[in-house]
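Protein Record: Sequence and Backbone Structure Tokens
======================================================
Scope: a single protein chain, as residues and as a discrete description of its fold.
Tokens: labelled as protein backbone structure tokens, with as many entries as the chain has residues.
Position: the record begins directly beneath this header, with no further notes in between.
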Amino acid sequence: MLGRWIMDPRASAGLPVDIAALVVGVAAFLVALPRVTHLMTQRIAFGQIVLVCVDAVISSDDTTLEAFASVVALLLPFPGLAYHKVQTLCRVYAENAFERMNIYLKALNTKDRHTRSLLVSQAKPIAETGTKLLHNIIILRGKLL
């Protein structure tokens, strides 16, 4: 908005594209900088930035392009894709932990040592998969915050 206010409102040519790109870059950086801001709030702010800058560039009364640009900015799947991937990995990790726990409970409840060792050996690859899933979740969550 500051870039829009600085520009002369009587100018009919609008904001130059390179200046608008600079304004979008700086504004997007300022929106993405705080780590505590919710992802949906950031996406809405990015959409508003696009609206203001498209309006500043085209300087017309046609809001169709502005609305389209805002919707595209909100629907870009990149931040949402990482969020949904983390959710999916968390669900898969929970299923993995549930399966591991069931195997360990069967091993604890059995009286035969041979069966117990077989069950524990079955749980080892599942535990390794769980460790890898948890590692991926931690990496993706770090990128989202």
Observations:
- The chain has six helices and no strands.
- Helices lie at 2-6, 17-32, 39-58, 64-75, 77-109, 113-144.
